[in-house]
Amino acid sequence: MPLVVSAVARSHVGLVRSGNEDSGYAGRSLFALADGMGGHAAGEVASRTVVAALLDLDGTDLGPDPRRTLRSAVLEANERLRLAVAARPDLDGMGTTLTALAWDGHRLGLVHVGDSRAYRLREGRLTPMTKDQSLVQALIDEGRITEREARNHPQRSVILQALDGRPDIDPQVAMLEPVAGDRYLICSDGLSDVVEDADIAVGLGHTDPVAAIDVLIGLALEAGAPDNVTVVVVDVAESASAPPPDTVRDAASHEPGGVLVGAVGETSATREPAPALSAPGPASVDVEDVEDVENVEDLEDEPDEDRDDEAEWSASRRAGRRRRRWPWLLVVLAVLVVAALLAARAWAMDQWYVGVDNGAVAVYSGLDVSVGPVSLSQLQERTDLEAVTLPEFDRAQVEEGIKATSREDAEAIVERLRTSAAACLSAPTEGCP
Ligand code: CA
User: Fold this and answer.
1) Which residue in 236, 226, 259, 91 sits closest to 176, CA to CA?
2) What gap in Å lies between CA 297 and CA 132, rounded to an integer?
3) pTM to 2 decimals?
4) Taking a C-beta distance cutoff of 8 angstroms, is the pair 288, 126 a contact?
5) Distance, CA 196 to ligand 1 centroid (Å)?
6) Which of 72, 194, 277, 306 is the most exposed place for a label (fewest CB within 10 A)?
């Protein structure tokens, strides 16, 4: 039985922001969300420009290679941003995320730049379809911070890739294999930052997609909605049980046809009272362990493969308000420097020497140096042997630090020094104190 898709969308300015920098679209075959950034309303311009640039894809044939088509469309949208900035220098610095799905009649193409999100709800299980292109996600991937630490990380707003008119854009593109009954969610971080995945799963599980949107936006508002909240819900159904293919509804107005919301639409749907949260949810939902989902396809790596495996990108929590973009190179360099320092410290801590601590001969691990604020040595044992009791030659050496090959070697050096001191006491010679 052939599949059809239908969608609803809504955007809410939230409870703190004065303007809406999100732009969303629910069309016949194109479903998109862009979350703009940049001062003085430039974020609105960026998200609006990118979504508008993609509208030509709606209802059109994606061709034999939908991934290539999507990628080209995103690069073209990025070029429009470049031209916009060239024409209006006051827009310099604007940028936007983009997460979009495009239906080719059988599969959903997914294109992703930045830290907006796509999820799939299948039989009650919520699975992330995108991976945040953010600094905290990179740190999580490196094992340097936990997902819990990421939530409050000071750099949580830094995203690694955005559409901003610059040429070094590498959109992630994948083909998803839907089955009847699948529901897809595209949302801005105004939802995912403040609502846990488990609660998103419950809200998204409401049978009526408009009710689902009501609950999701209501949950964000209940959490304070510090950012714009935009939600696009896409349902996949067997054609006999689905609405007519051109019945795309705005969650508020139920108007047929493609729906633009947020900055690109500024529809009446953007400022609504918080909906009731009492609608009954599904019997059970759970959130798929993101560790299970690790199958990334990138057009660069897989140019023409017509695979049937579904690309899914694991995701993690992050919070982002006013976002900035760091070039990948800078992040890679920073990670390399930190890794090199840690490796150097680990190596240094395996070195040993005998020195002086507060006048007493002492055993240290590490090197008798500091790199910036990082000391590369650690006091292991302070002996009762006073340095002043040593012969002059030994005292000078130990004050300089006597290198040892191991802890045992360091302790042997201490014993030799102790013997020298004792010899001075019993039979003083030249050089003895
Ligand atoms: Ca946002």
Assistant:
1) 236
2) 15
3) 0.63
4) yes
5) 16
6) 306
What is the Å distance from ligand 1's center to 9 Cα? 16
Contacts of 407-414 with C-beta under 8 Å, sequence gap 24+, read 407/352, 407/363, 407/365, 407/380, 409/352, 410/352, 410/353, 410/354, 410/363, 410/364, 411/363, 413/354, 414/354, 414/361, 414/363, 414/383, 414/385
Q: What local confidence, expressed as pLDDT, does residue 4 receive?
A: 95
Q: Provide the β-strand partners of residue 31.
A: 26, 101
- Distance from residue 372's CA to the centre of ligand 1 (Å): 37
For residue 430, how far is its CA from the centre of ligand 1 (angstroms)? Answer: 78
Pairing of strands 108-113, 172-176: antiparallel
CA of 319 to the centre of ligand 1 (A): 9
What's the gap in Å between 431 CA and the centre of ligand 1?
74
**Model confidence pLDDT, tens digit, residues 273-322:** 333 333 333 333 344 433 333 333 333 333 333 333 333 332 322 333 45
Cα 190 to ligand 1 centre (Å): 5
> b vs e for 46-85, b when ≥16 Cβ sit within 10 Å of the residue's Cβ?
bbbbbbbbbbebbeeebeebbbbbbbebbeebbebbeebb
Give the list of residues 6+ apart from residue 369 with CB closer than 8 angstroms, or none.
376, 377
Contacts of 81 (CB under 8 A, 6+ apart): 46, 49, 50, 94, 95, 96, 163, 164, 165
- Tell me if 111 sits within 8 A of 70, measured CB to CB: yes
d(CA 314, CA 332): 20
Strands 3-12 and 249-250: parallel
pLDDT of residue 254: 39
For residue 406, give the H/E element and its range. none
> Ligand 1 mean position to 270 CA, how many Å?
15
* Nearest partner of 43 among 184, 168, 189, judged by Cα: 189
Task: Report d(CA 326, CA 330) in Å as an integer.
Answer: 7
What is the CA(29)–ligand 1 centre distance, in A?
24
Expressed in angstroms and rounded, the spacing between residue 302 Cα and the centre of ligand 1 is 31
Residue in this structure with the two tokens 């529901």, named with its chain if needed: 183
Pairing of strands 294-295, 117-122: unpaired
3-state secondary structure of 424: helix
Give which of 197, 193, 119, 139 is closest to 334, Cα–Cα.
139
Q: What is the pLDDT of residue 284?
A: 38
